[in-house]
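Let's practice the habit of predicting before peeking. Look at the sequence and jot down your guess about where helices and strands might fall. Then scroll down.
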Amino acid sequence: MSVLNIEQIKYKSNELKQWIVDIRRDLHKTPELAMNEVITKGKIKKYLDEIGIEYKEFNDNYGIMAYIIKSNAKKTIAIRADIDALPIEEKNDVEYKSLNKGIMHACGHDAHTAILLGACKILYEIRDSLNINIKFLFQPAEENIGGAKYMIQNKCLENPKVDYIFGLHVQPYLETSFIECKYDTLNASANGCKIRIKGKRAHGAYPNNGVDSLIASSQLILALQNIVSREIEPSNISVITLGKINGGEAQNIICEEVKIEGTIRALTIKDREFILNRVYDMVENISKAHRCIGHIDIDPNWYPPVINNNYLVDIVKENTRKLLGKDNFLLKEYPSMGGEDFSFYTDKCKGVFFHLGCGNKDKNIISPLHTANFNIDEGCLTTGVMMHVINTLYFN
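Done guessing? Here is the structure:
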């Protein structure tokens, strides 16, 4: 049974509003890229010290885990926030604009961190009334190499073992005060790939003296799209996007080498493995058919699909309706093809990832994630805190 009722959770969260806003703006000013979150980590430690809670640093990956451990605990709940930023030059004209040139919190991780610190403060204040363990995970490198893996390697889900984990992500396409979630698969797997096609240079007037890697690459690019359109079951969404191609020296020289980079997305591990095998086959055989040599590197830092636990989705749904009203919970119909390394946690324990509305059309806060004008309606911060608190106390 919760030790705080709905009105108390709302009151305590709103009481912290300015504190949380100030933290978010403080973090927003000093964004750092994956595995370089030095200043960010220092600020998180400062706020945890202010709260008074115990925490553990993971010095090999810039992660931090604050915790409340109870001798009478019947469950262990974890809540995760990511802390890294993106290599984007901010265009917002705000007083808390990024001070780090070419780096910006364009995905809202500053908001996620501030929200988790707010939840941490409230839950720590009522620690004597708790009969659950709580772990607050401040995770680096979500945008790059999958920092969740390193947190897990450092036993963040063990000793005591985590039963349930919660995570959220701000979404500007949702108005503030709305929560979105989905049963089963929420996010696709994500794999980067680099392809190299090697031919032979020759003068463009005498193509028979060379081996044209551009021709082979053109055939390969077109053929790869047939995997999704003709070899994957139509009801199973998959994506092969080749977003970068580089090759050639001059207009009258047969191209010796072409480099292609892209991403592969799938909703199931089975489809992912099938696609990867077919990509390997096509790179090798189409290259060979054009007398070229083909090679592919698959990024080892791939993200599995995020699979939500349906029992926890029901809890998020129920709690949203209690806090915000029955119309403020939105059930997402289709999964996102975006990657999210929260999947590493849901591979190890039962978890749920949900979306927190941060848009506000009246304030023109509508820019998408990963753009130079992305911003949030800061009213979403207290909503996020309330959701983390009520979801956690559900198990108390």
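How did you do? The chain has a mean pLDDT of 97.
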